[in-house]
Structure of GntR family transcriptional regulator:
Amino acid sequence: MTVSGHRRRPVVALYERIADAVHDGTYPPGSTLPSEPKLAAELGVSRPALREALLLLQEDGLLTVRRGVGRTVNARPPRRGFEHLQPLEELIGGGTGPRVRALLRTLEEPTDFTTQHLLAPARAELRFWESVLGGESGPAALCHEWAAADEVLDRAHPAFAAALRAGEDGPGTAARPAASMLSVLVGASREVALHAHSGITATLLGRRRGEQLGRPADTPAVLVTQVVRVGDTPVLAAKHMLPTGAPALPVLQSR
């Protein structure tokens, strides 16, 4: 599948407008955002679109929702914890093989999430892959994955950079089964040590992601964020959204 020309998703543009307002002091740390109706009117957007952007900002640690108070601006992103590196489609598939449906393969400018976790400069172009992972009973997870900028990958992990390019526009691509970006990374890293950090939080699917997974917008979900590094260099950042009823994931913990 060939990467399309630069494409800016509307929710990303709205996300960045609000994030910029946080960074320029319009909404300083500790302040409470206006109510959804008021903020939607100020920004000239629909409430469903605003709600999607606010969910992303909450997931990325810029906002916190407090009962009876509303959405407040955080002073700093939360720390992340749990780690275990394995392609999610293999865990969901239960060893029956990957079930990945590619929704989008494109380039994006950095958001706060990718700036924070991939250390991407403001004008970088990052590969963005959106995929639905299937379980035994239908769609089980929605995955958003970003790779570091090409110049970073060429220096830190050239085999991963080459594998991404081959998977996007190499010969025979159309006949190749879809895979997650993490699966491509793991396959290209047989002689490269990878280190991953992941975090787990509770959230709601939201309208757009609910439509992609065939579930109501207010469906509770587990959000797994993941950052993979080669040495000290982050090469991949991802968000995996698993709605209520998704297959259980085995988690290995040690001390």
